[in-house]
Amino acid sequence: MYIIFDMDGxxxxxxxxxxxxxxxxxxxxxxxxxxxxxxxxxxxxIVSSYNVWREEFGDRYNQEEFRKYTKEFLQKYYSENTVxxxxxxxxxxNYLKENSFKMAVASSSPRWEVEKHLKDANIYEYFxxxxxxxxxxxxxxxxxxxxxxxxxLEANPSECYALxxxxxGLLSAYRAGCKPIMVPDLWQPDEEILxxxxxxxxxxxxxxAAFEKxxxxxxxxxx
Length: 223
Prior knowledge:
There is one protein chain. This protein is of the alpha/beta class. 48% of the residues lie in helices and 11% in strands. It has 10 helices and 6 strands, in the order βαααααβαβαβαβαβα. α1 packs across α4 (63-80) and α5 runs parallel beside α10 (204-222).
């Protein structure tokens, strides 16, 4: 069986760090604190959210400068801090590994950041493959990132469960043909998302319990 993990807000409590980073970058480029834009661009990479930023700030928004200061803040912050893992992450990963689930990551964050978080948390080796926001042409909610993750797993999308916290991420997984599971972070599902997800759980310990049940049913059906 195959599981694809989002990262920000799903495995790590990083969304709050992005709010601080975007407050910092916004002040640096003269648009003021912009951390609230995290809520408007959940699941999107910075490049793909360009139109959202331009609509909000017009010509005052300079994407290149904003990205530079965002990276400056994040690199300094992460050199001094590790990001807390979400409740149940280690329990879930250990269970999946012990039961021969194959796992991948599909994150809109840049590769340097994804690899740093996974290595800092000592979970990098759990994953067969990693697809990041700077490795695809189209960001979530486009399905490209999930299709690439399925390729790395050598799996049909219909065989893959996708763990996500954002609307854009869940739509990306659904459009790729995966089975989206939601673990809310900053956002609760609307009617559109409730119609496409196969499950909603409050934390990753609840996800583990759900996969224990799925694994038992799968094993019974294959024997």
